[in-house]
Amino acid sequence: MITTFQQHVLHEQQRFPGATTEFSWLVSGITLATKMIESQVRRAGLTNILGSHGEVNVQGEVQQKLDVYANEALIHCLSLRESIGIIASEENEEPLVLRHDSPASKYAIVFDPLDGSSNIDVAVTIGTTFAIFRRPDGDKAGAPLEWVLQPGRKQVAAGYVVYGSSTVLVYSAGNGVHTFTLDPLVGSYILTKENLRMPERGSYYSINESYCDRWPGVYAKYLNRLKSGEMGRRYSSRFVGSMVADFHRTLLRGGVFIYPPNTDHPEGKLRLLYEANPVAFLAEQAGGSASDGRQPILDIQPRDVHQRTPLVVGGRAEMEEFERCLAEG
Ligand code: P6P
User: pTM for this structure?
Assistant: First the structure.
């Protein structure tokens, strides 16, 4: 029996008495935009969509044309959802305030429209990440930033779409992790895995080892423990350079993905709100965990929309070993 993503979300909503269909209407904005993005990703090279847009984004990165298209598609589709008051994007310096003082607007959404965009021109897997928050205080609108500067544990739902050998939506609304594969012939995301669990112990570590001389010592120690066989097996290395792709493999096959702080990025490189928080939410929902080297990612109180963080995210065995390395000092 086929279950589409929309059917899944509507069924999930029945868990909440009195829930309206506004949430399923909201997330349908994500699925529509990601189908639009997917169609361009699959045609990159055939149209003049490759190469840089020529401008530099708020991250100081040269914007790829597909970045701009993806950002515009998400903003367009989600702006039509009256339940969304605030949108924060990796590509925009400031959050977009749509209608945060209207009683109908109850949610904020943050996203990275195209993570790993440096891989676009070489046909390597990229992805879209997102997280949804409820407005922080039901009684008053509050400052727009309050809606998005909430700890990851407050995420109502989060997920990503990975544009790989197939296009897969991975999603959780706090009731397990579920995967949906886009059937291009039908144009729908079809449920392919329900209540996915991360393997307790995997076989891969995923890290950019070129920075190994610039990490704090605990990361080199941890990596040696993974490589040496001390943990009962010698881990193999996999690193794509797109967090979504590297995390997707970690979620399905187990192991650990690591982006440590380094002398170039003392706070880490990855963004808390729309990279680390969504994958940390999914990891915890699937039986794994995620840390910044001091605390669970989901407990971090954000200060800034584009705040960076170190990220170690993986299965139970790998994360327990990381905690042991931290405790040993
Ligand atoms: P480095 C892509 O630009 C990204 O933000 C993540 O998707 C990826 O994991 C990381 O940067 C790769 O960074 O420094 O290894 O090239």
Answer: 0.95
